[in-house]
Specification:
By secondary structure, this protein is an alpha/beta fold. 60% of the residues lie in helices and 10% in strands. Helix 9 (182-240) packs antiparallel against helix 14.
């Protein structure tokens, strides 16, 4: 679970080291480029004209519409953001700039004399060469137009040097001006502030005078409107005979409420009587017994009293009946009394019914009268309401006109009082002074930034060139870009100009680093052949001049230290091995052996110094490819395989001819030699693909002529300089 992060971290470290290696290889170029550019910047900066910047500070006062008190005049209103932004723009306006230019006669200063550009000079030259092009243009320009054109140029230069910068969260603003003349810079900055203050004061005075005139004219109109509205109100009062409209409306409202209450009460009573009358009509006027049981009847006080008398007499008769007989005088008297009481009850019921009818008629007349009164009062109330509405409208008009008139009258009086006073829109808190130190150019900063920028630029370009350099330089390049095993790395050997590396450099103490690299290459090759014996080894490259002959020869010399080795010059087109080993040109070799004109013993040469058996190419044939494709070549290799421990064949380049492909089919392994930082990856891959197409076994790649001074790769075998493994150990003392 923890392996993935470790792998990721390692990859990051490797990438970083790759970039560091690029920087290390190009450090002197980068530093030289940065120094040259820095020196140029120093020379240029010395020619630059110093510029001085003077700054004046203004306090923008709050805009005061009225001069009522000193606090209002001097007060600062931080809520008027738009007001201050407007003032800042006014300072930068053309009107202020024009006045400053004219006041100070800036057109006479060198800073404002326009220097012609390259395009301008070219245009003037063309016009001088072809004067007819300029006639129409100059013909219609009046003096005013020419002056305006010159002023526009001055304005452009002036604004480019002027800077208005407000200070955040304050009412302060800095007015800065840049010039090669420090006194002029201070003068212009102060003048801009003064012109702005003067212009604002003149503008305020003009506005105040205009406001006063307008207020006076407006007051006369408002007075006429007020008088007219007051007359209309008074006329309405007289026409309607109104003294107190609000009091009349209140009385009518009170009367309306009273009659409404009376009407409600009368209607309730009428409804009650009508209900009783309907029952009476239903029962009939003569049905006294049923009528007497009505709650409306029985609840009457007279009826209740009579009924109590009836109950009393009935109780008395009942008591007497228990004692006396029906013919007893007391019984007869009580019975007569009961009849009398009941007749009285019936009489009272009849009288009550008659009274209810009369009361109903009376209440009905009362309700009708109250409804008529209510209707009349409502009509009166509506009329009064309409009059009150009209009255209030006229009254509001009068009040509105009076308020407007009073407001304008008050403002007019204030304007008259304060017309001769105008507060300044701004004031100086700090005036500009002539600076003693130029603001720019900052020559030290320019030089430092130039050095840093050029240094970074050089590093970036080094990365770009390294990325565009499509060559093989290190072991990671071989493994990642070519997907091949790295067999060895042969360093570049310093040799005199127009000379070649000695073929016996492996045995020379002078070339110990080279010998150790060949020895390491040999070891790597033998380790790749542990699983299968590879005796026949072909050495090839992409193009001529990559060191395949030197590599094959020194590989043969190193293997000869361990066994019997045969070195064959398989390049039948441009053979070099015989010449390098100082073998006569006429010596028979591979060609003679394949054709069969010579014996094996005559076609080989033994190098006494190294012990390597060398078979030169022999006579150069006219058809090398057909000769190598002959079955006799394969038979020859198979025959030689039994006589030698290793057979090294130096072959032509893969991209030049196809000879190497034919030889590779008879070889057990193929060694591909690549010249470091020279051969491009694309042709290398093409050569390897051609070998793979003929099913050749490519043992790996040998990176040749590596500049060890430029390489800081861990795979560059840099330890060859510190440890001499080519020396024989000293014998022990016995």
């Amino acid at each position: 679970m923890n392996k993935a992060p470790e792998k990721f971290s390692n990859e990051e470290i490797i990438d970083l080291r790759t970039y560091l290696k690029v920087i290390a290889r190009t450090k002197w170029k980068v530093l030289s480029f940065a120094i040259v550019i820095t020196l140029l910047s120093i020379m240029i900066s010395l020619t630059l004209i110093p510029k001085y910047t003077a700054t004046a500070t203004l306090l923008i006062e709050a805009e005061a519409a009225k001069a009522v008190s000193f606090e209002e005049i001097y007060g600062l209103d931080t809520n008027q953001k738009e007001y201050y932004l407007t003032q800042f723009e006014v300072m930068k306006s053309d009107s202020v700039a024009r006045e400053v230019i004219k006041k100070l006669h800036l057109d006479s200063y060198d800073d404002f004399i326009g220097k012609p550009s390259v395009m301008g000079e070219a245009k003037s030259y063309i016009k001088n060469v072809f004067p007819f092009l300029n006639k129409n243009e100059e013909r219609y320009l009046s003096a005013e137009e020419i002056a305006e054109r010159d002023m526009l140029i001055l304005l452009s230069v002036f604004k480019s040097k002027l800077s208005i910068s407000p200070i955040r969260k304050t009412q302060l603003v800095n007015i800065s001006f840049e010039s090669s003349n420090p006194k002029l810079a201070a003068l212009v900055a102060n003048t801009v502030g003064e012109v702005y203050i003067d212009n604002q004061m003149r503008a305020k005075m003009g506005i105040t005078q205009q406001a006063s005139n307008w207020l006076n004219s407006r007051l006369s109109q408002l007075r006429i409107q007020l008088d007219g509205s007051e007359e209309r109100l008074q006329d309405f009062r007289e026409d309607q005979h109104l003294i107190d409209i609000e009091g009349i409306a209140g009385l009518v409202t009170q009367e309306l409420e009273q009659i409404s209450a009376q009407l409600i009460e009368a209607r309730n009573e009428k409804n009650k009587l009508e209900s009783i009358n309907r029952v009476i009509t239903e029962y009939g006027n003569n049905n006294l017994e049923l009528l007497g049981s009505m709650p409306e009847i029985t609840s009457h006080n007279v009826i209740q009293n009579v009924k109590r008398d009836v109950v009393t007499v009935e109780r008395k008769l009942s008591e007497l009946s228990e004692v006396y007989g029906p013919k007893h005088p007391k019984i007869i008297s009580a019975s007569a009394e009961l009849v009398t009481v009941k007749n009285n009850l019936n009489k009272q019921i009849k009288d009550l019914i008659t009274g209810i009818e009369k009361e109903l008629n009376r209440v009905t007349r009362t309700v009708n009268a109250l409804e008529n009164d209510l209707s009349n009062i409502r009509a009166r109330y509506q009329d009064i309401t309409r009059k009150e509405t009209q009255y209030n409208q006229l009254k509001r008009e009068v009040e509105t006109n009076r308020n407007i008139f009073n407001t304008f009258l008050s403002r007019s009086k204030e304007t008259e009082v304060t017309s001769d006073f105008t507060s300044a829109a701004a004031r100086f808190t700090d005036r500009a002074y002539a600076p003693s130190i130029p603001s720019k150019p900052n020559k030290k900063l320019i030089v430092i930034l130039t050095f840093v920028a050029s240094f970074i630029f050089a590093i970036v370009m080094s990365f770009i060139f390294d990325a565009l350099n499509d060559t093989v330089k290190t072991k990671p390049d071989v493994e990642s870009k070519l997907a091949q095993r790295m067999l060895g790395l042969i360093p570049q050997v310093k040799i005199p100009k127009k000379s070649v590396l000695p073929m016996h450099a492996y045995l020379d103490e002078t070339y110990r680093r080279f010998a150790e690299s060949v020895r390491t290459f040999r070891t790597s090759l033998l380790l790749t052949q542990l699983d299968k014996q590879h005796k026949i080894i072909a050495v090839t490259s992409t193009a001529p001049g990559e060191g395949k002959t030197t590599t094959s020869s020194n590989l043969a010399i190193s293997l000869a230290q361990m066994g019997k080795v045969l070195l064959i010059d398989g390049d039948l087109r441009k053979p070099t091995i015989a010449k390098r080993f100082e073998i006569p040109v006429y010596h028979p070799g591979l060609t003679n052996l394949i054709v069969g004109t010579e014996e094996l013993s005559e076609c080989v040469h033994i190098d006494e110094k190294s012990g390597v058996v060398i078979m030169p190419s022999g006579q150069i044939p006219s058809n090398p490819l057909e000769l190598l494709s002959n079955i006799k070549f394969a038979q020859l290799i198979e025959h030689l395989k039994s006589q030698y421990d290793h057979i090294i064949i130096d072959t032509p380049p893969t991209q030049a001819v196809s000879d190497a492909l034919v030889i590779a089919q008879s070889a057990d392994s193929v060694i591909y030699v690549v010249k470091s930082d020279v051969t491009r990856i694309k042709p290398i891959k093409a050569g390897l693909e051609r070998l793979f197409e003929v099913k050749a076994h490519v043992a790996g790649v040998v990176l040749n002529q590596v500049d060890m001074n430029k390489s800081n790769d861990e795979h560059s075998y840099g330890y060859y300089d510190y440890h001499d493994y080519s020396k024989k150990p000293e014998p022990e003392n016995t």
